[in-house]
Fold this protein.
Amino acid sequence: MSKDDKIKQFNPSSAGLNNGKFIGLPFDEHEAEIVLLPVPWDVTVSYTEGTSTGPLNILEASRQLDLFDPNVKDAWKMGLFMRSLSTELQKKNLTLRKDASHYQKYIENVGQAQDSPIMKEILERVNSGCLEMVQWVKEECLELLTAGKIIGLVGGDHSSPLGFIQALGERYSQFSILQIDAHMDLRKGYEGFTYSHASIFYNALHVPSVKQLVQIGVRDYCEEEVRFAEEHTNKITTFFDHQIKELQFQGHSFQQICQQILDGLHENVYISFDIDGLQPHLCPNTGTPVPGGLQFEEAIFLIQQLVEKGHKIIGFDLCEVAGKPHEWDGNVGARILYKLANMAGKSQFRI
């Protein structure tokens, strides 16, 4: 059956189909304009575990979403498909998460890894395994980009998309990153982990094509990160959450604030959406929740404004959504993911 035939036979107003696909859509990967790549990985999490099963939680919750998008007419017809989770990556994550947890407890209670040959060995093993994950993601994304797909990466912790950003760096001479997040994630090798979730944008800024990082919603950060951002003002612009709230308290509209946020972005934009950029009642079981943040509607409005201003979304990720059995987190995550996909497709004139 062709894609056109599937579209004709599919009823977007019916109950969600339990067919193992995102939102119960009928499409296969080769028919989909947008492919979601799940990365079941939370090896270096430093607070609460569980985001490795976030992609599965999102997938299962997605069945009860309605497909109508008032901003993107017939968006579902583009075709949206989520790949199956890599069992090999899941197994590697399980093993390395135990190692990383053991190491983290040691440095928190005893001392640095240099004091223990066993801990040094564990650290090397974890860093090696995380590098393999980054390389796996890069290879998968290059394959999908070659096939002409728009990619949405679904984490896992926020270390997951580095390989994707590297892949985009080989396809685009320059692009900006719009980061929605409670954290700056600019630490160098946090806790000794080169590819820590807290180091994702320190690492991403080493991709030559990344010309600008614009952060919004940030409200939990350390002195090292602030210094790093101040030393790289030519590349990093941070809209701290308290600054956004102060502007709103003083009478500035959120649309005016969005204008400031988007003004510094290149035409090509990669969106990195950490779910903890939202207010905690929308993601209560994420790994590192922080009071404050964006409302759901504010995040959606920001993305809509990005597209209306003519920017092209060249890829996106959604990370740190809590895994099973936290259905509410999966529900919110699925809605964010669907909106990101629709707006990315619209920005590239796929619909």
